[in-house]
Amino acid sequence: MVPHRGRFVKGERRDQLDWQRGAGDTATYGRRCRGSPWAPDDCGVGPLPRGGRLAIAMFPQGFLGTRADVLTDLITVGYGVIPLVLYLSALRARRGEHRLHRNIQCICLALLTVILILFETNIRLRGGSDALYLTSSFANTPLLRFSLIGHLAIAISTYVGWCGLTIASLRRFQRTLPGDFGATHRRMGRLVIAGNVATAVTGMWIYLLGFVF
């Protein structure tokens, strides 16, 4: 499916492009097209709404059976697993396996960084976070907006704290860790795990609001 003078031309690949609204008649578009992450031929919206734009969908349909794409599904599942992995990694450190603990932490943080970059790129190409949740029943509602703000505040502060702890710990590894910095490291580590748990819970809440309901 390809755009032609503001309309979709039938017969082309519809999984290449995604019709997302901009600043035009967003309510009409969301109501008529709700239920499908790809804009079907029979969506019935005709020309792009005033201020609207065509956005590219980087990733195919997800595997959880919702309106989300595969990257969003992977992030949702991944954030549910990360707190458990971090907790098991902390147990390894308690048993004296500090090198394994360090490696697990660095791998998790590196993978999360790559995924977040891809996710942010996906959001920008699809027209922003508002366009991402276009087909939700809660699109443009205070509940979704404030949920997003709370989630982002927790996620960003946790990520920054995790990065800071990792850098500080790597500099002290085998010198003062374990050692004088050990107590601070443990306290900060607990905060990072708690922050990741809160990020996972709020992220799942937003996933339900944005892609299920």
Describe this structure in words.
The chain is mainly alpha-helical. It has two domains: 2-56, no CATH class; 70-212. 60% of the residues lie in helices and 7% in strands. It contains six helices and four strands. A two-stranded antiparallel sheet has the order 1-2. Strands 3-4 form a two-stranded antiparallel ribbon. Strand 1 (2-4) and strand 2 form a beta hairpin. Helix 3 runs antiparallel to helix 5 (142-172). It starts with a strand and ends with a helix. The relative contact order is 0.13.
Write a compact overview of the structure shown:
With 213 residues, the chain is mainly α. 60% of the residues lie in helices and 7% in strands. The strands form two sheets. Strands 1-2 form a two-stranded antiparallel sheet. The protein has a two-stranded antiparallel sheet with strand order 3-4.
Q: Helix count, per DSSP?
A: 6
| Share in helix | 55-70%
Report the span from N to C terminus.
27 Å
- Percent of residues in β-strands: 5-15%
Which strand order spans the largest sheet, edge to edge or round the barrel?
A: 1-2
C-alpha Rg (nearest Å): 21 Å
Q: For the report, how would you describe the main beta sheet?
A: 2 strands, antiparallel
Low-pLDDT residue spans: 1-54
Q: Averaged pLDDT, please?
A: 76
The overall number of domains is: 2
Say how many strands there are: 4
Global outline: elongated
Secondary-structure content class: mainly alpha
Which series of helices and strands comes N to C?
EEEHEHHHHH
